Fold:
Amino acid sequence: IVLLKKAENNYSSLVFSFAILFIDWWIFAMIAYRISGHSSAIFWTKFLYVSPTFIPSALILFFKVFPSRKIIVSKKYFMTVITPNIAIIILGQTFFQLYQLYTVLVIKKKE
Structure:
């Protein structure tokens, strides 16, 4: 919060704040996963797979912006950096849906 308050005029602080936010998001997801019951474990597992992918993206953007403290990131560069995040979100959701379908059709059928 302190970094976001001071980041009003400083783009590098703003980008670094997002990196810290994503690290905090990952830590929160790990804690929630470990204390959650079986019913909500799948929900928190999704967060554990998705949240760490944003950390390198935010740090790459920070390293690009930090020395000059100016916005020198083009839209093409930004999209190149966040494309893996989008792919992991989509593929991760698809994987979990396929796993749930497999659980219903194969595992419960054996029981």
Remarks:
- Residues 26 and 51 are 5 Å apart (CA to CA).
- The mean pLDDT is 75.
- The first helix runs from residue 2 to 6.
